[in-house]
Design brief:
Blueprint lengths: L9 H8 L3 H12 L3 H16 L7 H5 L2 H22 L2
Helix pairs in contact: 1-2, 1-3, 2-3
Length: 89
């Protein structure tokens, strides 16, 4: 779905600016007739644009920071373990 054609009201923008994303999602759903996921995606996109962030998925951001780092450390540990088991032993 192309969200660029949506008309975003001042109420939605004010709610996002105030940090009330849930309120912004409710308002957008009522005004545009979107489902929950679609409205959340639009509000998240608008919030990122307001903060100047890109819309790309960063693993660290999506995983919640520490969770992504822990997974990365585990993968590195496994790779090193395999290396030392087969090549340094």
């Amino acid at each position: 779905m192309n969200y660029n054609d949506l008309e975003i009201s001042d109420q939605v923008i004010e709610a996002i600016d105030a940090g009330h994303k849930i309120e912004a999602i409710k308002i957008l759903r009522e005004e545009a007739g979107l489902g929950l996921k679609e409205a959340k995606d639009v509000v998240d996109s608008l919030a990122r644009a307001k903060r100047g962030e890109s819309g790309g998925n960063s693993g660290m951001v999506e995983e919640g920071g520490a969770g992504g780092m822990i997974k990365m450390i585990i993968v590195i540990a496994v790779v090193l373990g395999v290396y030392f088991y087969f090549f340094a032993g």
